Structures are given as C-alpha cells and as structure tokens.
Amino acid sequence: MNKPQKFLIAFLTTMVVVFGAVVIRVWALKPPVGFKVAAIPAGEYDPAVWGKSYPLQYKSFQKNLESAPSPTGYGGSVKEQKADRQPEIYTNFKGNPFSKDYTEDRGHPYSLDDLRESKRIGPTSKGACITCKTPQLEAFYNEMGWSYANKPLEELLNRSQHPVSCANCHDPETMNLRVINPAFIEAMARRGYDVTKASQEEMRSFVCGQCHAEYYFAPGTSQVIFPWDKGVTPQEMYQYYAAKPHDFGQDFFQPDSQVPVLKAQHPDFEEWQNGTHGKFGVSCADCHMPYMRENGRKYSSHWMTSPLRTIEDSCFPCHTENRDQLYNQVKATQDNVWQLQHTAGLLVARGHTAIAKAAAMPGVNREELDKSRELLRRAQWYWDFLAASNSMGFHNSVQGLNTLGQSIDLSNQSIDAANRAAGVNTL
C-alpha cells in the first residue's frame, strides 16, 4: 500500500469517527418525537400536579430530594457549613450574615425550606429574597410589579407553597421553556437580547441562568438587578459596581478593616458563558439535564445534578474518553481551583487583619490606607466569584485560575499598602 492510499484510508477513518460523533450528539440532543402536551391550568405551581401528566420528568425531579456529597468532593447537596472547610469565611464575611450561616445548596425542592431555615434572614428581610425560590414569583410580579421586592419577606413566604419546580421554566399551556425572573429579562434586554425570541437551545441555558447568576438589591426599592451592563467576566462586573449603580456601593462593611465588600452570589451562568462549553453551544441542560430513555420513551432528566453522576447520558454524546478519564479531568481541574481558591481566601483574611492593625496606628497614612482597602475589595470580589460559584471552576477553569491569581496578587499588594500606611518596612 503506497503513501497516498494510506493517507486516504486514515482520512476516511477520521471522517467516519467525526460523522459518527455528530450523529450520536444529534440523536441524543434531539427532543422527543411525538411528545404529547398536556393541559396544565395557568397558575398551577404544584409539581405533583404536573407530574400526573409527565411522570418520567416528575420521577427524575424527585431525585433532587436526595442529599449526597459531590462525586469529586466539592459542592454536593449535603447541607453543611462551608466555613467548616473554609474558616477564612468568618473573617472575610464578618459583619454579614454569611459569617454565621453559609451552607451548601440543596436541591430545588428545598428552596423554600432552606430560605425559611436560614439564619441570614430576619424580620427586616425583603421580599426580593423570594425571587428565585418559588414559581409563585410569577403571581407576585403580575400582581405587584417590582414592589413585591420591598414587601416583608415573611409576608411572601406565608403565601408561597411550592419550591422551584416546573412552572419556573415551562409555560403550562405549551410546555415551551420560559423565563419568569424579571431581573434576568431586563438584564438581557440591556445587553440587546430579547428573551422572548430566544431559540430552544438558548432557552435550555436561560431557564437556569435566570437564577444561577450574580445579582444585587437596589437600595431603597430592593429591586433585583443583574450587573451585566459592562459584561459578565468578574473584571467587567467589578467595573460596573465601581460606578455605584443605583447608589449601590457595597453589600456590607467588614467591621475590622472597614472595607466595603461586594458579596458574590453563585455566578454560574456568567462562568459558563465564557467557558469552553458555553462558547461551543453546549447548554446547561445538555450536561445537567440530559436526555434519557425508559421503556422506549425519551425524556429530559429533571434531576439537576453533577454530570459525573450521569456520564453516559451527559458526556458521552460529545466525548469519546472513558468514564475514568472524564472523572479524573474534572477532579484535577477542581483540585487546582480549590488550592488557589483556599490560598486566595486566606490571603484576603490576612488583608483584613493588616488593614485593621494599620488603621489603629497613630499617624497612619490615610492615602495608603484607602489604597489598601480598594485593593482588598477587588481581591475579595475575585476570590468570592469562585468561592460562591457551584462548579469549583470547572465551568471556566482558565478564567477561574486567572481570577484567583489576580486575587492573590491584589491581596499581597493590599497588605504591602497597609504596612506602608502604618510605617512598617515591607522590604
């Protein structure tokens, strides 16, 4: 066999493999054929009622009631305090309820229970906190507009019977995917996206992004706002916050250092957009809600869990690696991110201590002290952007490691500035 023939055979073999992978992916991702839509009354928020018409989806949704550690040891659905593993939380969030109660997220069926049981809420908590906890948000917004956000949280909790479930993401009449969070709709509109015109594949991420995202409450009105006007990277969002939008300057002041801290809130949608999967058109649902088959019937799993629990259905439509290779790749990525995240968090805590000591010194250089606080504010935001997300950097490991590296550098700069402010030789 001559070289041209060998080349031709190798080329054709490669094309067969690629074509086969494409066919498998299309087959796996194509929605069920002949899917019969049931009539669910508008305003029906009980998932059990929806489950009578969609038993396979409901059966898989019920698996979200299970609590288990993550396959890699990061995250998971066991309700345990994050500070047990990251004691720096006590310092970095001192002066904020997150220093008292910061548990791992459980599944969607627990959204209301976890809110009611949280030590972070109290008599003064606002209705904005209900935004991503129940499909009854739709009714509250239709009834009150954004004024629901400034209502007492207790009042809305008393009216909420059902946790995050079917109606958060599906139109009851057509079963089409939909977004009910007005904050997401408005944020996307400011970026030039009309959510009502989104494709089916886009909606398979938008329904997740309406809640798994960073936000803040506007002072005075408690309106929920997503800080995406300048972009969705941690650096772009920090620039947005630096302009004090809607007179929002910080979530709280750390009492020892008096740093005006920004508290990140699970920016998973933002990470995904700039990550490998997001850039190549792989939706959230492709991995976390894969298509499955039972008794010859195809359906989308509603067990929103780690893809490592459903590798064959979540990963194999695109990947040719075996289970161990895929697991080891994810584990290695998360191990690397965790190492830098923990290092960054500890350095932020050291920064708060250094600033507090410098501020107590007579004749402290106020200019250097202010510089130190600004540096640490950025350092903490970059650290928390990763610490608050659910993927331990896997959604976008390149951005995550870079952001944590910047956090470490900024903390060191902040500590040096604090020492200069106090007249301490840092050489």
From TrEMBL:
GO biological process: anaerobic electron transport chain
Segments traversing the membrane: 7-28
Annotated GO MF terms: heme binding; metal ion binding; nitrite reductase (cytochrome, ammonia-forming) activity
Keywords: Calcium, Heme, Iron, Membrane, Metal-binding, Oxidoreductase, Signal, Transmembrane, Transmembrane helix
Catalytic activity: 6 Fe(III)-[cytochrome c] + NH4(+) + 2 H2O = 6 Fe(II)-[cytochrome c] + nitrite + 8 H(+)
GO CC annotation, single: outer membrane-bounded periplasmic space
Keyword Cell cycle set for record: no
Keyword Transmembrane helix belongs to the record: yes
Places the protein is found: Cell envelope
EC code: 1.7.2.2
SUPFAM superfamilies referenced in this protein's UniProt entry, alphabetically: Multiheme cytochromes (SSF48695)
Main location: other
Family according to the record: Belongs to the cytochrome c-552 family.
Protein name: nitrite reductase (cytochrome; ammonia-forming)
Organism this protein belongs to: Propionispora vibrioides
